[in-house]
């Protein structure tokens, strides 16, 4: 099913945005992509398109907030192919509001998806990669991991945390490559769910005006993966030129 030179690449949050764009780019590069998300109808359509274009792909339902779901996703791919070359922890949510709005359920969701979801992926994949002596974990951060804006305090906190754990993993790793990719405004569905309606609308307008295409982030991820095993692209921060 896969060529000797292709990599087995797992992508969480693959049903739209950066995840879907990355699936398309990596499948076009000849890698076998294993796509996970909750919206399996979206995944099924994406996989059909990738196969029609000559790529190899599969999908599985995935909830990154569930440790068991993530373990089944990762271990299942490992059992089928005998290895996992790359894990891209991409799933994320951004529900913007001021702290005094006390949207605590949405705070919990951002912590569970953005931070715990990333940790679940690391916990599932890292032992398998270490046992094999090679692998690559790519965590999707955000430019919000480098500054805090009002209405985004909790989202920024989760992305600061992802940045910290990625750097810690990098320092602990010699045989597993570790990359943090931190995009600025990007055309995606990130601003379309949850949060204060007025604040989300303003963020959506900013993303539409200032954002870069998700394919630009996919290209950066592909470049990091394409480096020799002895070269580790540790951190990529990227924004559209219009964002400044």
From TrEMBL:
<dbReference type="InterPro" id="IPR036291">
    <property type="entry name" value="NAD(P)-bd_dom_sf"/>
</dbReference>
<comment type="similarity">
    <text>Belongs to the short-chain dehydrogenases/reductases (SDR) family.</text>
</comment>
<dbReference type="GO" id="GO:0016616">
    <property type="term" value="F:oxidoreductase activity, acting on the CH-OH group of donors, NAD or NADP as acceptor"/>
</dbReference>
<dbReference type="InterPro" id="IPR057326">
    <property type="entry name" value="KR_dom"/>
</dbReference>
<dbReference type="Pfam" id="PF00106">
    <property type="entry name" value="adh_short"/>
</dbReference>
<keyword id="KW-0560">Oxidoreductase</keyword>
<feature type="domain" description="Ketoreductase">
    <location>
        <begin position="7"/>
        <end position="186"/>
    </location>
</feature>
<protein>
    <submittedName>
        <fullName>Oxidoreductase</fullName>
    </submittedName>
</protein>
<dbReference type="InterPro" id="IPR020904">
    <property type="entry name" value="Sc_DH/Rdtase_CS"/>
</dbReference>
<dbReference type="InterPro" id="IPR002347">
    <property type="entry name" value="SDR_fam"/>
</dbReference>
